[in-house]
Design goal:
This protein is an alpha/beta fold and 399 residues long. Helix content is 43%, strand content 12%. Helix 9 packs across helix 10.
Amino acid sequence: MLAACAPVRDPEALELWAMSYQGDYAPFLMPSFTAASGIPVEVQSVPWTAAHEKLLTAQAGGALPDVIMLPNGWISKFEMIGALREVLRPDLVSGLFPGLVEASRVRGRDYAVPWSIAPQVQYYRRDILEDAGFAAPPQTWDGWRTMARAIRRRRPDDSVFLMLLNYEGWLFTMLAQCGANVLREKQTRGNFRTPEAREAFAFHKSLYDDGFAPLVLSTQVPDALGAFAAGQFAIWCGGPTYLLDLHRRAAEIPPERWGAARIAGPQGPGPTSAKDASLCVTTSSRRPEEAWALVRHLTSAKSELTFANLIGSLPARPEAWAGLKAPAPVLKPFAEQATDLADSPMIVEWERIQIETTLISERIARGLLTLDEGLAECDARADEILAKRRELVQAGQIA
């Protein structure tokens, strides 16, 4: 009886696994592909919380689908375990934002085709800043502090920045803007006790110490957009998907009350972290030519534009941006930031290092560790996580 209730899979269909909104809305892109190729596609939407384990388990069991979506930080891991086919068609990775392809390469070779780009910017309450005497957020850290003091004088009961303690985006953007290289010795040891990293951590901590940002986790702010609309804070770091959320909730926060700008840096805007998504053809696929045809369809300018207007992602192909629904002034900081993305280490341990560093930065912000103690702990945790990699590098087994 259970077998009879199981969904019947079309043996002619290609399989695609994608996460979150991409997985939920990808079926809308399939009818035109099937009409043109005659190939049906079955899409499975995978929640982010289960995606990593599900993909690894499927690879171990030889059950990966034909095409998978991966964040750039996972590409090297899945290439290392032999899950990905190399991209052998240069046209698939041409005509993209400069630096985007390089950020997804493993040892100089392509195993993924960028699907969307998600640079971080600062969303700001235009009316709150204007009330404090600022037409837009300043572009330097000193200017930010001047603005923050002015806002607190006008609104002493509200915060200036929402910097969730368990969100790594702010801190790693600050590290990138300071030019900090947080790994050394062929990315086998931590390198957090440098002047550049110390500058980033110190500024990050100071925003909490001075009362400009509340010491809160995401669980304590379940509706950040609602808090933003209510004026509980004025500056919020986020990606492009919030553009669609802001559009949908225009009754709460009309467009004239908010804007977007590049994130301030020590001397001005610099590289920021980004959560980009790419598509990969797996070694499990028995129909790689058809799988690459699906990737070509999904990463075309037309499909990326359709997807962007459905879910709020931004196209990896600049030619698609002219058709986006968001106003040009709002898109401008995203377009500028898309050409200035932070370089993340393409090693399998990087995600764990980010998590551990974020946990330590929370303890620093809460005063449970001094800055020096926290930086030393970051190095110790990174060294521990990288121990196996260090052995393999020293043995000459990996580059």
